[in-house]
Amino acid sequence: MAKSTARTPATPGALADPTLNHGVAFTRPERDELGLTGRLPSGVLTLEQQAQRSYQQLQAQGSDLAKNVYLEQLHDRNETLYFKVLTDNLVDLLPIVYDPTVGEAIEKYSHEYRRPRGVFLSIDDPDGMEKALATLQLGPEDVDLIVCTDAEEILGIGDWGVGGIQISVGKLAVYTAAAGIDPRRVIGVSLDVGTDRESLLKDPLYLGNRHARARGADYDAFIEKYLRTASSMFPGALLHFEDFGPSNARRILETYGRSYRIFNDDMQGTGAITLAAALSAVKVGGVRMRDQKLVVFGAGTAGVGIADQLRDAMIRDGASPEQATAQVWLIDKQGLLTRDMTDLRDFQRPYARDRSEVADWAAEGGAISLPETVRRVGPTILLGTSTVHGAFTREVVEAMAAATERPIVFPLSNPTSRIEAMPDDIIAWSKGKALIATGIPVPPVEHEGVTYRIAQANNALLYPGLGLGTIVSGASTVTADMLLAAAEAVADQVDLTQPGASLLPPVENLRESSAATAAAVLEAAVREGVATSKPADPAQAVRQAMWEPAYGDGAAS
Ligand SMILES: NC(=O)C1=CN([C@@H]2O[C@H](COP(=O)(O)OP(=O)(O)OC[C@H]3O[C@@H](n4cnc5c(N)ncnc54)[C@H](O)[C@@H]3O)[C@@H](O)[C@H]2O)C=CC1
Ligand SMILES: CC(=O)C(=O)O
Ligand SMILES: [Mg+2]
C-alpha cells in the first residue's frame, strides 16, 4: 500500500508572519488575493474589535506572568494587534510587558519559553555575529534602534544570563508603545557571555551558554566586535545598552560614547528622568538646586549616573564644581564611602569623603550607616538605588523630615521586591511632607485629606522620547545636552499647582509626553551640531515619524 502523503497544510504566509498578519481583519478580497480562502472563519472584524477580544482574553489570564506570556504570544501572531492593545491600555499593561513583571519573565525565561524573539549573539561564536544579524535580512538603512543586554545586572535582580533577552524585548515594546518607534525597524539582542548564577548553570532546561561569565580581554573583544558589527551593518541605528554590570556599563559608555551612537539607559536615562523629578521637587520644596544635599544609597550604575546629573544641575544653578561634588554622599555595601577605602570603583572616587571629616561619626565594624549619615548630613534628597528592600526605615525618613521642610525621597530600586520603602509609609512617617518618586508604578496615597500621586521615575518615562528625538535628528552621538533637554522637557510637562501633585507626567500621557521630549532632544541635537537631519518644524517631524498600530489600506480597520 502506498504511503499516505496527506498532512496538515502549512499556515499560509500572511497568517504566519506577525508583521503581515491581520487575522480575521483580512477582508474577503484580501483573503482571496493572499491565498487564505477558507482558512479563516467567515466573519470579518475590525482592529478595534480584535483588540477588544484580545483584551478580554488577557484579563482572563490568572497571573501577571501569564498575561506577559499571553501578550508575547499575541506579538508572535499579529504585531499590529499587539501594539494596538498595548498602546490603548498602556497604564494597565506597562507593568506587564515591562517593570515589574518583566523581572519574573526573565527569571523564568527558560521554563516559559515558547519561541524566540530577538537575536542571540554568543561569546562562544564571535565570528557568527554578522551571520546572525544578517539572518534578519535587513539592509543598512532598515534599522533605527538596537537594544542589547549582557544581563549581568537585570533591574535589581542580578545576573539572569540569556533570560535577559526579555529586557531587550520589553524595552523595545515600550519604545514603540510610548514613542511610536517603528517595531519593524528595531532589534533586540542578547549578548550571551555566560552566567555566574549557579541555579541556571545547574538547570537542565537553561537555554543560555552553560559557563561562567566571560570577563577581561575576551569580554572586551566581544563587546567591541558587537559595536563594530552592529554599527557597520546598520549605520543609522541607536545602540541602547541595558542592565550591564556596574563596571562594564560605565566603562563601555566612557570608552565608546564619543565614537558610536550609544546610550546607556541605566546611567543616562535613569539620570535624566530622576533629574526631571528632582527639578519638579525643587520647585515645590523651595531649596535651590545649587544648595541641595544628596545622599545616594547604592552607589552603582544608576546611583552614580544620577549623582553625576544632579551634581551637574547644581553647577548649572551656580554651585562651583567642588561645592557641588562635596554636596553628594555615597553609601554602598561598605557604608559611607571614604577615600581611604581600597575597594572603591573609579566612578565612586570623586564623591568619596575624607576620613578626617567623619572621624567622630558612629561606625559599626568601620562602616558608617545610612541612618548615621542622614543624621549628620541632613540631606535634602535621599536616593535609593541599592536593591535593598526596606532600607529607608521610619528612623531614616523621620531624620530626613527633621532636617528639611520638604524632604525629597526617591526609592528607585526595581522590581517591587527591591524597593527601599513604599510611598504610603514615607508619606506617613514624614507627615505628608516628603516629595516622592519610585521606579515602579504605585497607586496614589491618601493622607489627611490629600491625594498624593506618586511619580514613576522609571527611565521608561524618558528613554522612548529621547530615542525618538535621536533617531529623527540622525544624531551621531547622544550628548549631555540632549539628555538635559529631555529631562527639562519632561519636567516642563508637570503641573505642580495642586497639593500632592505628581513630580512627573503620568503614564496616561506618555505618548504625548514622549513627542514633546523628542522634539526638545531633536532641537538640542541641532544646536549641538550632531544632527544630520534638521527639520524646520521639530514637533511636526517627530509626530510624522511616530508609528501607529493600524492595518493601513485594504484591511478592515
Ligand atoms: N527607576 C529606574 O529607572 C531605574 C532603577 N534602577 C534600579 O536601581 C537598582 C540598582 O541598579 P543598578 O545601579 O543597575 O545596579 P548596580 O549593581 O550597578 O548598583 C547597585 C549598588 O547597590 C549596592 N548595594 C547592594 N547592597 C547594598 C547594601 N546593603 N547597602 C548599600 N549598597 C548596597 C551594590 O554594591 C551596588 O553598588 C536596581 O534595583 C534597579 O532596578 C536601575 C536603573 C533604572
Ligand atoms: C528601569 C531599569 O532600567 C532598571 O531597573 O534597570
Ligand atoms: Mg535597566
TrEMBL record:
Q: Which family does it belong to?
A: Belongs to the malic enzymes family.
InterPro entries referenced in this protein's UniProt entry, alphabetically: Aminoacid_DH-like_N_sf, Malic_enzyme_CS, Malic_N_dom, Malic_N_dom_sf, Malic_NAD-bd, Malic_OxRdtase, NAD(P)-bd_dom_sf
Protein name as it appears in the record: NAD-dependent malic enzyme
Organism equals Streptomyces endocoffeicus
Sorted alphabetically, which Pfam families does this protein's record hold? malic, Malic_M
Q: Which cofactor does it need?
A: Mn(2+)
* Malic enzyme N-terminal domain span: 75-257
Tell me which residues make up the Malic enzyme NAD-binding domain. 267-526
Q: What keywords are annotated for this sequence in UniProt?
A: Metal-binding, NAD
The ranges of region (Disordered) come to 1-21
